[in-house]
């Protein structure tokens, strides 16, 4: 993992309100970065560059309550020592 001007001791955190189109564009940038093997995150407080490679673990959690809906997407990687599960994920 390559890091530049890293916020909070090796961690980058950002939280803000965005409209659907902005979120869509940010997710497109993340997927493009995964494809290129380099993702750079930045805001006014600092930046971090990650270099995903090998097998990546995908974890998705979703919940829907009365007035709060939540979708968490986590992508992590270490090396190629673990074999991925054989479950098939479908997203519509």
Topology, element by element:
Blueprint: H1 20-36, E1 39-43, E2 46-50, E3 57-64, E4 69-76
Verbal overview:
It is built from 1 helix and 4 strands, in the order αββββ. The longest helix is centred in the N-terminal third of the chain and has 17 residues, at 20-36. It is of the alpha+beta class. It starts with 19 loop residues before the first helix and ends in a 16-residue tail after the last strand. The radius of gyration is 15 Å and the shape is globular. The strands form 2 sheets. A two-stranded antiparallel sheet has the order 1-2. It has a domain at 20-76. It has one helix at 20-36; strands at residues 39-43, 46-50, 57-64, 69-76.
Summary tags:
two-stranded antiparallel sheet, globular, alpha+beta, 4 strands, single chain, 18% helix, 92 residues
How many runs of DSSP E, i.e. beta strands?
Answer: 4
Q: For the largest beta sheet, what order do the strands appear in spatially?
A: 1-2
Please report the number of helical segments: 1
Estimate what percentage of residues fall within beta strands.
25-35%
Question: For the terminal residues, how far apart are their CA atoms?
Answer: 32 Å
The structural class is: alpha+beta
Biggest β-sheet strands, sense, barrel? 2 strands, antiparallel
Which residue ranges are poorly predicted, with pLDDT under 50 across at least 5 consecutive positions? 1-6
Oligomeric description of these chains = single chain
Determine the mean pLDDT.
86
Shape: globular
The helix/strand series, from N terminus to C terminus, equals HEEEE
Radius of gyration in whole Å, from Cα? Answer: 15 Å
- What is the helical fraction, as a range of percent? 10-25%
């Amino acid at each position: 993992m390559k890091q530049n001007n890293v916020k909070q001791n090796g961690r980058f955190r950002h939280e803000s309100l965005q409209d659907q189109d902005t979120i869509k564009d940010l997710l497109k940038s993340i997927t493009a970065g995964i494809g290129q093997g380099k993702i750079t995150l930045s805001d006014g407080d600092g930046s971090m560059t990650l270099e995903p490679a090998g097998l990546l673990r995908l974890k998705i959690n979703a919940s829907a309550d009365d007035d709060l809906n939540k979708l968490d997407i986590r992508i992590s990687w270490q090396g190629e020592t673990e074999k991925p599960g054989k479950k098939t994920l479908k997203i519509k």
